[in-house]
Records
---
Amino acid sequence: MNENITDHSVLNVEAPEAISRRRFFEKLSIALVGFCAAVVGIPLVGFIIAPLFRKPPENWVTVGKVNDFQIGKTVSVTVIDSSPLPWAGVTAKNAVWLRREDKSNFIAFSANCTHLGCPVRWMEGADLFMCPCHGGVYYRDGKVAAGPPPRPLFRYDVRVENGEVKMKSVVVPIVTTL
Amino acid sequence: MKQLFKTVWLWLDDRIGISVLLAPMKHIAPQDAKWWYVFGTATLIAFVVQVASGVALAFSFIPSSSQAYETLVFITNTAPFGRFLRGLHYYGASAMVLMIGAHMAQTFLFGSYKFPREMTWTTGVCLLGFTLAMGFTGQLLRWDSTAAWSVVVAAEQAGRVPLVGDWLARFILGGNTIGGATLSRFFAIHVFVLPGIMFGFIGLHLWLVLRHGISEPPTAGKPVNPETYRKEYDELLKKSGRPFWPDLAWRDVIVCTALILTISLLAHFIGPPPLDNPPDPSVLAADPRPDWYLLWYFALLALIPVRIEGYVMILMPVLLGMLLLIIPVLNHKGERAASRRPWAIAVVCLSVIMIGSLWIEGQQSPWSPNFQALPLSEKVVGTTSGLVFQGAQLFHDKACLNCHLIQGYGGRRGPDLTHIADKLTHDNMVIRIVNGGNNMPAFGSSLKPQELDALVAFLQSRKRPLRPQDQPPTARN
């Protein structure tokens, strides 16, 4: 071994106060590393998980005039996100199946199959919603008719105001039951 | 000039340590490690291709929900070599999944996961998981209609996780629905997070390969004994070991060349998977499917009984992953040769058969309605007027044809009704149509009596033609 190079692993025994000083700086170093990790890490994690805490906007969106919809018919309507991110583009659009029950009552069904969220299609002649993914089928009232969906189609709040049909912003309904 | 190059090389090598860095390439390996041992290198090379082609694609790909689709169209149709690069990235991913599967099967059959290489296997299992995650997130970056709806499917699956399911789903969506935040988080995961983790795990995996050596091919009747194995392995290497480079690596080079040529030819002649419609969630005529390497799981979710589906969706991947991880803990010594471990051969064969069968089912997706079903032709119906004809029209209009086959036309979700009149009576047909059952909706409330009569009349005309010997004597004459 080169005698000029100091082997730090075989340093001689030091005075007790020196050890205490070194242990102090060791602990201080560990604490500082933890502090730095927190200073950088907390905003970082907060930034990434922020969407979890974003509440859906409560405002009502007009999807058409009442007279645009025939009684007994189910049609898809586009609902634009009322507060999209500026770069959302076409992804700010959503669709729901809207059914006019009578003169002033509407039902808005989620277009997401309750099995795994695929877009269900309305089969006009059959009065059924059908899912292309795993074959889920629903009756016109949204109840499960066949296939694997665990529950009926979700419904959104819809109301008529000043001759216009209004809905709250669309949220993808998540089935959380096993 | 030669002397100058030599001097420069020696200077650089001294300062950078290139020879030291490359020294592991010359590690001594068993000389019998031949063609069965090439899959690990092939997986690594496929990963390198993915990194290189991914970096190139990122030069033009904009991870914005509003612009990604247009940049993909530009890359595919306009950018020089863009179509080829997209294809290379797609087939490279496919090759990586195939090679990692082959590598795991070989390692399992050769018992190479046993002492002292338990952690080599474990890191490899983690890499399999990361590879599949890369495959799935990569499909989502193909930001078309299928990708957007696949994000929803992923969120719905995550939603089934107890307690934190809703949070996980919102995290995946980047909010309460598909939107501006969705694509960019998958881009970050696919391009930075997962590759970063994979680089670390690949480094660890390779370090463990060097630390414990490449396992020698197993010999029947020569079990692994942890107390003596290392000594026996060292003696084997001293007796007949060869440096990996250049003595053994040539096979890896040949296989990797074949792999790169294959994916390049596929990228050039077949090209990348076509883009679907733009990712507009208000267009509901979408049919999201995973890429081929996850199609078996898609099929599984359609075929398992509904009452256990949630458990299978969440617990099966967890249990499967844990089982793979603890294999070397449960079975770290003893026989390595597959001929003495018939259960190992059975596990690999059954896995291939199970995944293959589910994959074929996923390709056909018989559980999905056929939305492209056209009205039955006159030739199939057999008439152009009357109750049978009206019934045939209703059979299409009421979406019966979306789920049932008639002489090869229609869907496969329900039974083939080509010869249904040979099996069901008039009354049975009425009961079945009105009440539904056996995964069929009830049509009682949506059919008028005359429509029901017409439908049944049509179905009653669906009989197997009589053979000459079955016809009454008068008809034969």
---
Amino acid sequence: MEKSLNNRAWLMVMPVFVLVLFSALLPMMTVVNYSVQDSMGQNNFFWNGDAWFRDLLNPATEIGARFQNALFKNLSFSLVALLIEVPLGIAIALCLPRSGWAVGPLLVVIALPMLIPWNVVGTIWQIFSRADIGLFGAALTGLGIPYNATQGAVSAWCTIVVIDVWHWTPLVILLTYAGLRAIPDAFYQAARIDAASRWATFVNIELPKLQKVLVIVVLLRFMQTFMIYTEPFVVTGGGPGSATTFLSIDLVKIALGQVDLGSAAAMSLVYNLITLTLCWIFFTIMMQLDRRRYA
Amino acid sequence: MSADALPRAGLAVVRGRSRLFAARRASSFLPRLGLAVYLLALMLPIYWLVSMSLRSNEDIMSTLALWPHHPSLEKYVFILNDPTWVHAFLVSLTYVAINTVISVTAALPAAYAFNRYHFIGDKYLFFWLLSNLMAPAAVYAMPFFNLYYAIGLFDTVWAVALAHCLFNVPVAVWILEGFVAGVPREIDEMAAIDGYSFPRFFVRIFLPLIANGVGVTAFFCFMFSWVEQLLATTLTATDALPFAAVMTRSYSVAGMDWSLLAAAGVLTMIPGAVVIWFVRNHIAKGFALGRV
């Protein structure tokens, strides 16, 4: 059905607009302000033009190389995390019973990891992944896999992925499960009459019906993995070396560690621009799907 | 014969059903196994946390124990009797509650507007709202500090509640929009014909229809606000110190008090678990109702 044009709808959107603008615009302006100035300390700022940006986007400079490195790490991390979490989440959602007494308790248990504050998640895994006193580390070492979350670069990176999968697959499960439950029973009955196999039912009924929810899931998870901060900060501290120094970790290191506000601000603007572009692509796909539904 | 024909027919249906269930039970073995393995992997780290909270620090740091050999509730007793911890816990609950109420209330009319009307800049506004979800909190921490200090809200629960609106309001609008879409437009029109004014229609008729959505949205707002702590710790100093900030403090006192930290961690899971218990049926009933 066509939506009607009504500009008074702005009145209904106004509270949201003001609330978010208040929290988004002023901090953003501060960041923009820093990104074009240099400081000699004592709050003396002077105009620096686009110098920070030129440095940042040139891989030959130190900061440019660092940025490129961290960006690559972020993208590969997001990709790997999504490739594991989304199929796993869908699979588990399909395994859940459609009704019955067990649904409630199961959902509560599955949601538990998401309800733990992020620094506690880090704390758990800090101990849990240690080879001497943690079960995860000890089990891997017992299997003969060389594993050390704080010393080995590969181990550290994989640990962060495992933590993210543990922490956020529940979100995929909850949303997918809710999406699955919204499919009317008539579709399943039709499939049963056609003697469709489980796989055929999944591909032809469930997957198309889940499209919209899956776009939301992928978008949400992409944004969250792309700005990952707390887990690597607590568990590996960005190390060893720069193995788990993701963009946001690098950003805080530059801004607060080196008090290099100009570089950090330029970096966060470029960082935001990248996420904005990627999300615009997702968003356009989402809108296209919507339009096709109404057409 | 005709007297018991009906019951017999009924019996046949029941038998047919039970055969169907038997077939389904056989084919549901693999899914159950998969689910069990996943749940085990999911629960192990949480079990480890609980186990750690019951053991002493020396014990945690010296041996790999699969279960606590000398369990003690000492750390829990300590936390529950320490005014700093209790106060921090209440502070966290307060700002999370304020934030959830603000986010859901503001998002309700907006979600309705986005779903029902076209207006100038609607798509851009929606995208801009979503784009705030990916603002890295690390970047905003410093400017937020300046902002809330300037307007005199620093170190109050309101500062944290308002700051969390940055990502919770867009999430709320997004989720609610899906639920609004599930309510047929004919209902709006019928209410208008029946002489309902818009506010009265919205509260009396529309809200009950999307009660599931409100429940689910409230849960997500609660969750995202409860687990966020970078902003929460940046915007507070002493009066409104959140639970997470008190936890980071126990890092420095005589090395790491792992046991205390674990006990506090276990306690932080409880409010969320309670909230999701209340909305479990809403979540199960389906997200974005008819339009997935």
